[in-house]
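Reopening closed ticket. The problem is back. First fold of the pair:
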Amino acid sequence: MQKIEAIIRPGKLNEITEALADAGVLGITVSNVLGCGRQKGHTQVYRGQEVQIRLLPKVKLEIACLETQSEQIVEVITRLARTGQVGDGKIFISPVQESIRIRTGERGETAL
């Protein structure tokens, strides 16, 4: 089992979640987050003062899946999230040691 974490632009969320559902992804966690990277933020004028905004709004997707599904999921996310500009996001893949469905007590791959 693996956990895929993807940080993407907020405007890409609906398109990506629909494509993941079409690809058979059953569960996904979505969080609104703030972050910075190479995009480095931007400057805004607030009440006549220039303000440097370093943390930009992003969306974090978390998906637990079988190892056999991970490449397809990563392909869907990268294909749809890519604009070719700085700030498209990142994907992190890490192993999952165990999963447990709280309602039934099922463990392992059946709990996904």
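Second fold of the pair, where the issue appears:
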Amino acid sequence: MILMYIDPGTGSMLVTVIIGILGAALYSVKMLWMKLRMKMGSGKVAVEKKRTPFVIFSDNKRYWSVFEPICREMSKRGKEVVYLTASEDDPVFGCDYAGLSPKFIGSGNKMYAKLNYLNATVVLSTTPGLDVYQWKRSPSAGYYVHILHAASEVVLYRMFGIDYYDAVLLSGEYQREDIRKLEKLRALPEKELPIIGIPYMDKMAKRLEEAPPLPPHERTVLLAPSWGKSAIFSVYGGKILDLLLKTGYRIIVRPHPQSFLSEGDLMAELMAKYPASDRLEWNRDVDNFEVLRRSDLLISDFSGVIFDFSLVYGKPIIYTDPNFDTAPYDAWWLKDPLWTVSALPRLGKKLTEENFAELGRLIEECLESPEFERGIAEVKGETWQHPGEGAVRAVDYLLAKYDELTKDEVE
């Protein structure tokens, strides 16, 4: 008898693949049923009177920066938007845009019960996993649109994260190419993939342009890791803080919000061992604009903040080499190197176990060398198309799609 061993990572990946295959099959059946209904109904769809034209769903308050420019543009055009949020203290509740109706829908089963029976024409969200796990497509919702919340890889979502959206709003051509490859591999219908740019980065750039000059300040290094077993703190622990404090620079540590939920013990241990002082600041601001503005260099791993810092603020980075495991992600399906792998060396220097002890020198080289200016401009052109036009292009698409979906409705 031959016993087979499957390691936990591979087992998890296989389970995800099986779930995705079943989901794809169910999706195909549902699409066939919808087409039959449309044909029998002569292409017309009866819509309830209380159907909401536009719904935005945000699973966390930190995504308000993504949606705010779109809400503002919708308001300028006199459109009504219902904004559903899973955060009771979401900044949307302090916004007074005309036509914007924010609603707290709770979390967990209560949230999914609301989402799974939405009565809406167009639903916009940053949340992956539609029709994969608990969040299901509502039979009364017409069209689901995903918008990215970072200027980076679309295939670094968990497997099948965006498969069952009808459209994805993109910022670069490489993202479109990757999605088309995944659709072909999984025999999925092609989604609409308009490249609209990045509304939240447009706003950040405008805000930076209008901000007053920073007062003179000592050189500041920002450590902003992601979370999980491949992230900086899991790989290097407190050793990286020891090295940073030895540089003599002011150090700001801004962990990913999820770290305090998924890695609470680790965060508590680090904050106790390295308490706040005149040389070290722990930052948990919801809005990262000011902490990025007053930092001269960023150290991170695969967090999307890398691109915010480099492309908006025009500053260099140091990125770690965490031996990133693509097994749970859509990237596992593709044989091509990640776009991020080609982008990062143009934005700064890599921190490895071999040069880890020389972190201070790497910081000096990044801050003193002009070589990264051209690289930042190249990467910006690849992943941030249509700068300054993101919100307008996003709303143009949403309104055109709404008109298309409702042109044959029975009054």
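Update: turned out to be a display glitch only; the data is intact. The first strand starts at residue 52 and ends at 58. The chain has two domains: 47-198+388-406, 211-383. Please close again.
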